[in-house]
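Aspartate 1-decarboxylase (Bathymodiolus thermophilus thioautotrophic gill symbiont), 123 aa
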Amino acid sequence: MQRIFLKSKLHRVTTTASEVDYEGSCEIDGILLDAAGIDTFEQIQIYNINNGNRFTTYAIRGKDNSGVISVNGAAAHKAKVGDLLIIASYASYNEDDIKNYTPTLCYVDADNVLTKVGNQITL
């Protein structure tokens, strides 16, 4: 049996751009993508802390150390500049995988600079 678990998340990133007239997706600083283990064109879920919107799109790689979090295309209607987001990726795991499972949890500062990577929820 396969079960779906959180693979990784970028916690409380700040939206730096919202581009309706873009082909689509979410541009994310490459350093953050690498830290979270999210690949270009990988499906992601975005949860907007400010307005409660939740939506699915895919990741595209932004310039390393740019701090960019740009919500593009139709999804741009769901996030505006300055909104705090949680960006999550999920994966299917079999029963053997679950025994050694830990997610990758990435935390940033107000400028979307990576400050911590862990595998436990911090409150």
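Residues 2-118 form a domain with the Barwin-like endoglucanases fold (CATH 2.40.40.20). Helices lie at 30-36, 95-99. ok done for today
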